[in-house]
Design brief:
The structure is a homotetramer.
Chain A (H helix, E strand, L loop, with lengths): L1 H17 L19 H20 L10 H5 L23 H19 L5 H30 L23 E4 L2 E5 L15 E5 L2 E4 L5 H9 L11 H9 L8 E4 L2 E6 L2 E4 L11 H10 L7 H7 L9 E7 L25 E5 L15 E3 L8 E2 L3 E3 L6
Parallel strand pairs in A: 8-11
Antiparallel strand pairs in A: 1-4, 2-3, 4-12, 5-6, 6-7, 8-9, 9-10
Helix pairs in contact in A: 1-5, 2-4, 2-5
Protein name (chains A, B, C, D): Ergothioneine biosynthesis protein EgtB
Pfam families (chains A, B, C, D): FGE-sulfatase
InterPro entries (chains A, B, C, D): CTDL_fold, EgtB, Sulfatase_Mod_Factor_Kinase, SUMF_dom, SUMF_sf
Chain lengths: ~400, ~400, ~400, ~400
């Protein structure tokens, strides 16, 4: 039980560490619907443990505040009414201090629960809760960046970042012949239900890049008027570009004839050799088309990811987010975790510089709508090759 | 100069007093476009003194932070770009502490300026700035109520309120014969430019109520299905009712077969003899029609207001907000204060329980769009009478 | 009875004459919500006679098609469900031929009814129906212009127009001293209920232009960048200009370095000495401010209109559309004619080149939302003067 | 050349036959953005031949009307400005007669061109143009149904329908073991570029239904409150249901305690044994989940479609519309045909009762956004099976 108790407290602490240099005001705002207030993340992840574990497994558990159930439910229809997502940024209460008190309350109860032997079922739920919290840590990092990066004062801030492995290698491709692969999680550890149902996939011959596309390479696309050349874009992508006056990745600023980007150090000159980040699927796809290539499928990525470095950027794939063969939604509220989102979103593979350590694996499937780009989303190139040419 | 210096510090202090029991988080949010974050009000009123007075009248004045000009400009086109109104609630920075520092910075400079002799022109500007700040004090009070009253935790709070003069008199009307009246400000003190241009208005005979409509009277309208009887409503009012599922004034809640309303003490049973508040023009007008009467015009109100008690509720009138004959917009940014809003809004007369003392007068013209009701808006009845019957 | 029978058939015929050169397709479309399909106007005006007269006064009247009640009700809540206004252009059926058959059906029944003695009450209803139809004739003319003028083929068409009385006189003003006037309808003929309640109004001294503003004068405003100078605009007007990229009156086109306008003859070079038409209240008001003047109030207009030519353009006034003192909504569906629109609209006075002959009078009050300009709306200037200067 | 000339005239005639019983008014309206006016389809398909063939291959070709290029371009960015899609229903001109004249003009020129020897390249373009027109014939049929089926008069109409093969067989499933399949077009005839790039796909064992889901089966889902059980729905599907008050397939009406549906014969009692039609992907997917199954992938469908009857309903698959490996967009305007729509849409396979004869094939890929249902969209069930159980 030591292991799970330690893991619990380590993961929980990390969420608070991410927020440790924030001002109270930073915890409150929600500038766009996709970005939740940091205090909401802190409360919601605690609510998850309270709702799915403490209420069910601790006989005399006393809720910190029954109204929080309404405030911190994210999207679980099975669990009743909730504050609608667009309104999270309208709530000044509970205060940040109260949310931290709430975390203490939950942590004390969990600590007590974990001091006793834990059933396999409960263990699985806790691990799910911790993985859930790690997902929110990633969102915390990107939401904080969005909140501060869209403030006209462009404040600097601290962030728990993994180091970026900028690879100096030239733009090499790995060539893969026609071949059969096993896709999906295959281990004894934790994974989400959308990774299950390991199954065979046949992949026609292809090439996949060893490195991610850099800021410098993406800049060439911009300079070639890539945002204006309709032939590289999806029709809906072009509409998105026009309606939102998009002409560069998020956080890029053109100031006094030079490109800058916003990050923890505030506004800084763009680093050309870093992997490009904060692009939408539409942009990633248009860039690839401009290069005469395409994005890899999620299967190509998973099959080959042991042969190239990854983990700096969430990488857009050309695969829509759909269930694997034999996917079954779990019963009850836990079943609302993944399956109900399997439409109109694209799969991302890998991990990013704000992904918690040990939270990524080759079979991990992330997913976002194609226009979103507040995550550290990047681009890896691929293309189909003629088998006869190999 | 003592007088103006004292008045300055007294008014400025009052803004901060209104916020004195808020949590930091309460200062930040903007649940609807009309409700600004309290810290924005505190910053904007300081910006007003900085921009219109300190920058112009203090030779070596050094701005607290030049970016604040962009953050705290409300709507002055003459003064350049600004944060758009709908985005005020997305700004976590400047922090509440920084905004208070900003106030200190401005106050110190103003204090120094006011320690010397003050020209008439400068005096007038300061008085304008203080009246401007008092208007924002009223908004501060109602915006705080909105922020807390729409929080699912319904927190209690403190507020600087004037006492409500509940009048026990029966529902008497004052009768006025055909008569000529002088309308508009007529004194030596301060008034806004929309009150100027004192002019004669002829009023056909009418009756005007001595008292405001009470919660109890308004409840009768609800019980009679008033919200569903189209014959009492403007077409746009009925659309507003249907699209927003309106069935009672703002802050009224129907809980367990009883009406409650939200206020400083949290959710409390509705007090029937208090004047109704937080109704839109559409509701005020429909209620009056249901009573077989109408709202008074702003001229009827001003002509007779010395004969009935007022000051608890801003009172909707049946007059559209339009310029008086001979109204001229002032040159420059100051000219954007009133004139550009003279379309699509209705006039309110009187004052409310959160109006600062000495901030009201018979000629004062407030104005809002007809669907708004987060102010303490109430109803006084009137009707036209046949002269021959008098 | 001859008189009313003749008037009936004359007015009814005029509606069809207006449409006589249309293609069937022109009868069907609704390019914006304010513009109804011509066949809808033809059906709705017949429905008015059927619903308010034939159904009530003809014992054995048999409806042409009961479903038409749903199709051709415009906005009468008292009369049940209806096709919502935005959907009128989605209805291909009833066909144009069927609508004309419907008119024949109604006309035959009316003809029979009018061959017998008619009570005073019925007579009044018929006159109301005919005035209602004349209002729709004006809309028919402007809606047809909108439909064809927004077609990329810019077809020519014929229209029943009154001649424009272009006045060559110089820009003279009539001066009026402080004076009392009687406002509202004062006769034995027909008027709408919003003109009733004749009452005294005191008018401070003012000047009012004898002539309307011309295209040439309005062009000077454009050339002086009037659309970009915020100081002349209402805040909501400026938003409207920006959001809709407005830079000239409706139907003006800048082609190959020259201004053209669209009319019955298609696209033609702009005639500088004609009165400007198709401007919104916002534009009219901004133009007046740019000239250092204002629009006349509806009372100033009515008081003086016997001293200047009018009838070419509906003239925006600076008066909001509000009830006269003592205005009472009629009971039943007829009561929905005017009162429920008395908010958020501005009054227009006069008449336009497409107003049916004998349909205008000094007390006539038209009204539109301030952004609308598909009517022949124009500008007359006025200003307040200091009595002492007279 | 006879063959292509005959085929041309046969296909072109069919478009006009579909419209032969329409009233002129039916040709004009566009009740929702997805439904184009019939006259627009007739013009656009002619514009396709004019733009891609006559202008390029006939030296002295004289355009019928150069403005039509602007009016009838659908979405080709390469070809310049165009009437935006939402405005098609606002165009009363060109008239229906003029559109038919335009067709004559194009047909005469094509006839002349086809009387001479035709190059392979030209032949391919003509075949593309005819397939394009056949696609629009399908849309013509469904758009006409939408226009008339949403008219409050519910008119009857004639339509060129293929007979429905109602299969009386019981609900049998075909079982398929783990197996490799070739997917994509493999012949010498015509296909669209999205079918090309024939490639191997490995399919894990599955079962697929021989018959389509019937109205009767779908009704059971409704009776079991299927539209309210969130566990069967995608989150975006549930939002769509709630926001649009969806409780049955399109064209179903609940009248006097009985279900009816609208079709060529007007409103008729629902036929229980007919395949359900006019459901969205969300509904199809929720129904399958309620049955404990799923929709087939497009690969499962293509691999097995020679073993079950199809052609009555377009069948939603569980596959997102994405390019096949090695898909390359053609250069120029022709390249805008398919690739730019490959995001946010789901694949449909099969054909429907309004698909032109010979226009379908096993590799044909249709695609729509998941909320759309004005096509004859139906449901076939499938499920993954455990290989070991076989």
């Amino acid at each position: 039980m030591i292991a799970i108790k330690d893991k619990y407290s380590k993961v929980r602490k990390r969420s608070e560490d991410i927020c440790s240099t924030l001002e109270k005001e930073d915890y409150v705002v929600q500038p766009i619907v996709d970005v939740s207030p940091p205090k909401w993340h802190l409360g919601h992840t605690s609510w998850f443990f309270e709702t799915f574990i403490l209420v069910c497994y601790v006989e005399d558990y006393s809720s910190f505040n029954p109204s929080y159930h309404f405030v911190f439910n994210s999207y679980y229809e099975s669990l009743g009414a909730r504050v609608i997502r667009t309104n999270r940024g309208n709530l000044s209460r509970p205060t940040v201090d109260e949310v931290y008190e709430y975390r203490r309350h939950v942590d004390v109860a969990m600590d007590k629960l974990l001091s006793q032997p834990v059933s396999e079922e409960l263990h699985a739920l806790i691990i799910l809760g911790l993985n859930h919290e790690e997902q929110h840590q990633e969102l915390l990092a990107t939401d904080i960046k969005y909140i501060l990066g869209h403030n006209p004062l462009f404040p600097t801030y601290e962030e728990i970042l993994n180091p970026i492995a900028v690879d100096t290698a030239t733009n090499e491709f790995i060539t893969v012949k026609d071949s059969m692969h096993n896709i999906g999680y295959d281990g004894n550890g934790f994974c989400f239900d959308n990774e299950l149902g390991r199954h065979k996939v046949f992949l026609p011959a292809f090439k996949i890049a060893k490195n991610l596309v850099t800021n410098g390479e993406y800049l060439s696309f911009i300079k070639d008027d890539g945002y204006k050349k309709h032939e590289y874009w999806h029709a809906e992508g072009l509409d998105w570009v026009k309606n939102n006056n998009i002409d560069a990745p998020l956080y890029w600023h053109w100031i006094a004839d030079q490109w800058y980007s916003y990050g923890t150090a505030g506004i800084q000159p763009l680093k050309m050799d870093q992997p490009v980040a904060h692009v939408s699927y539409y942009e990633a796809s248009a860039f690839a088309a401009w290069k005469g290539m395409r994005l890899p499928t999620e299967f190509e990525w998973e099959a080959m990811c042991n042969q190239f470095p990854w983990g700096d950027r969430w990488e857009w794939t050309g695969s829509a987010y759909l269930p694997y063969p034999g996917y079954v939604r779990a019963a009850g509220a836990i079943g609302e975790y993944n399956g109900k989102f399997m439409v109109n979103q694209m799969v991302l593979r890998g991990a990013s510089i704000v992904t918690p350590p040990e939270h990524s694996r080759p079979s991990y499937r992330n997913f976002f709508h194609p226009h979103l780009r507040w995550q550290y989303t990047g681009i890896r190139l691929a293309r189909t090759v003629n088998t006869d040419d190999l």
